[in-house]
Amino acid sequence: GVSSAASDVYKRQVSSSFRRCIFPRLSRALATVIKVPSLAESITEGEVKSILNEGDFVAMDGPIASLETGKATVDIKSTVSGKIIKLHAKVGQTVLVGNDFAIIDETQVGSAKAAPAPAAAPTAAPAEAPKAPQPQEKKPEPKPQEQKVQAPAQEKKPIAPEPVSMKEPMPAVKFSREVRRVPMSRLRQTASKRLKESQNTYAMLTTFNECDMSELTKLRKKLGDDFFKTHNSRLGFMSAFVRASVMSLQKFPAINAVIDGKEIVFHDYVDMSIAVSGPKGLLVPVLRNCDSLGFAEVEKAISDLGARAKAEKIALEEMVGGTFTITNGGVFGSMLSTPIINIPQSAILGLHSIKNRPVCIGNKIEARPMMYLALSYDHRLVDGREAVLFLKNVKELIEDPRKILLDIQQISFFHHTTQLNLICLLYTSPSPRDQRGSRMPSSA
Known about the structure:
alpha+beta
């Protein structure tokens, strides 16, 4: 009996030690560590804006938290389904790329449907949920009866309550001298830093021109409906300016280049940065390989970028690597501006509002839809002549869109007159004569 009791004690000890040593390892093996993912080039940290709670369930590819970086808001997504058993960060904390962020237990996946509910919890104020039953408290009928009583009361008020109504707006019109301090978002901090860095780095200069939008406007009115039926996309002005800029950049490659130390880096491609407005500020996503895109592809891409910018779904990788920028302040009514170059590019084209203005056409004055164009450029790399001719080329292509469609570059006046002089010389120069004095046919 003693030996059997000792054996039972030994078995219990072995069993408990086995549970302490083996099961924790198994549980750790089934727990997945979620790390802060790589955000984008040159971005190493982000600030937690919203996050789920420990004990919440999350589905695979579901958001655990949202980080605000210097360029956009990014979600940290789970690579597995399970229960969050540990969080290494909280709202307002700055996390580094590659650090541990959360631990998820994969064994608990029974309530995976509960994942969307906590995801909405950080965004929706929890105090609004209990306010839902409040309309039930307003159900009693005496209140609408009181309103019916107030209706005749309002008929009696036109004489006496007028001074009361004059007194009510008085406290509402207050001149507050309070000072409020609001923390600057990471996106605003990065934007302000880069804008000031651009001013301090570049020898920035802006040249202007005006563009007659008559022909492009007529083209839109005439073929806009057919364009939409064919491509399921609206024909706007941006696609024409993108194509005109691409053709002009190919003609003046220095504007599409950058300074790197003591070298100049020329790009044989055009990645166009398009400034779009988002809920938290201006975003500048990039259209890759614009030199291979047509009107329809450009319009669809810009429409997609604008929609995703409003929904804050633009990835950080989409805002890196542009070689030239177009910003359109005309959508807000801007008449003229001096845009700031987007580092590390060397130039930026600014578009503005279209207004009817009197223009001399021959000997007549006509009202034409005109737009002011502005080109800010780095004078260290781009000469004034190149900048002015670039903007002039864009203007001439927009004023005659047929040249964009047919890919016809504007020929300079000097080159054109030189060709005419050569032709005149060929046809007016004396041809060699044969021995008999007769004129031989010209080989030309």
